[in-house]
Amino acid sequence: MSLLLGQFLDELGGELIGGDREVRISRIAPLDSAGPGDLSFFSNPRYRQQLAASSAACVIVAPAQREFAAQRGACIVTADPYAYFAKATQLWKRLALGSRPGGIHPSAVVHESAEVDSSAYVGPLCVVQAHARIGAGTVLSSRVTVAEGCRLGQRCLVHPGAVIGADGFGFAPDQGRWLKIEQLGAVQIGDDVEIGANTCIDRGALDDTVIENGVKIDNLVQIAHNVHIGAHTVIAGNTGIAGSAKIGAHCSIGGAANILGHLSIADGTVVSPTSMVTRSIRKAGFYTGIFPLQENEQWEKNAATFKQLYALRERVKKLEQVLDEERRSNNGK
C-alpha cells in the first residue's frame, strides 16, 4: 500500500515545504530508519542530528524547526507534529484496513438480553453477558468478556483478553473464615475509551465502577471495584488501582504505579512509573514515590537505617532543644 503525500495534506492540513504532493509514501517510519519512500516526524529538539541525517521523503515538524528541516529536504510544518503524526497513523490504518468491522463473530457468545449496536463489532470468542450494552462503533477485538449489566459507550476499543465486570475483591471476616460480599454494581464506560489487553475492570460492590469519556488504559491494568476515573486520563501498563479510589480528569499514571483505595487524585496530576500513592493528592503536580535502585548490599544498609529514622529524629529534636537553651543562657550573660 502507498499514499500520495498530498493525501495527508488534504486530510490533515499542514504546510508543505520543499516537497512534491505527488510523491508516494509507502510507510510511516521513525527518523533513524526512514527511507526515501517514508514519512517521519520530528518533535524533540534533542534529535536534531537524527533529523539532519534522515533519508525520509518528508518529515513532519513544528514551525520553530522549519528552516532547519528545510535544509534537509521536504517537510510538513504543523503546530503539533506529534498529534499530526498520530492522525497520520489513523489515516493510514483507515485507508489500509477500511472501516472498522461490524457485526458479531460466529464464535462469540452474546446473551439474548444484551444490547449490541448494529455498528459495533464483537470479535472471536468474546462473551457479552445478560443486560450488557455495547455502544455504536465500539470494537471488542477477541476473547473480551463484558459481564452482566456492564455498559460501554460509543467508539470504544477493547483489546484481547480484557475482562469488564468481574467481581470486585470483597470479603467479610466471619469466625475465622471469609464471607463473600456479592458485587451488585456494574461497570459504566464512556465514549472513546481504549482498554488494553488482559486488563481487568471490576464491577462495583453496590454502586458502579466508572470510566469516563476518552480514558486510555494500557495492558495488564487492574482497576478494582468502585474506582472512578475522570475523563481523558491515561494509565500505563501494570498499574494497580485499589477499590473506591477516585482519579481526576486529564491525569497521567505511569506504568506499574500503585494507588491505594479510597484516595482522591486531583485533575491534571502526573504520577511517575512504579510510584506508590499512599495518600490523596489534592493539588495537581508531578509526583514521584520511588526508592532509588541500588546494589542489594547498599539497599540493605539503607533499609536498616530507615528503621532508625524516627529515633534519630527524636534525638535531633532533643539536641536542638539543648542548643537553644544554651544559646538563650549565653545571650542572658
Which helices and strands, and how do they pair?
Layout (H helix, E strand, L loop, with lengths): L2 E2 H8 L2 E3 L6 E2 L1 E2 L9 E4 L6 H6 L4 E4 L4 H7 L2 E3 L3 H17 L5 E2 L4 E2 L4 E2 L4 E2 L4 E2 L4 E2 L4 E2 L4 E2 L4 E2 L4 E2 L4 E4 L4 E4 L2 E4 L6 E3 L4 E2 L4 E3 L6 E3 L4 E2 L4 E2 L4 E2 L4 E2 L4 E2 L4 E2 L4 E2 L4 E2 L4 E2 L4 E2 L4 E2 L8 E2 L8 H11 L2 H24 L1
Parallel strand pairs: 4-5, 5-6, 6-7, 8-11, 9-12, 10-13, 11-14, 12-15, 13-16, 14-17, 15-18, 16-21, 17-22, 18-23, 21-24, 22-25, 23-26, 24-27, 25-28, 26-29, 27-30, 28-31, 29-32, 30-33, 31-34, 32-35, 34-36
Antiparallel strand pairs: 1-3, 2-7, 19-20
Helical stretch tally:
6
Low-confidence stretches: none
Task: Give the beta-strand count.
Answer: 36
Measured as a percent range, the helix fraction is 10-25%
Oligomer: single chain
Give the distance, in angstroms, between the N- and C-terminal Cα atoms: 92 Å
Q: What share of the residues does DSSP label as strand, in percent?
A: 25-35%
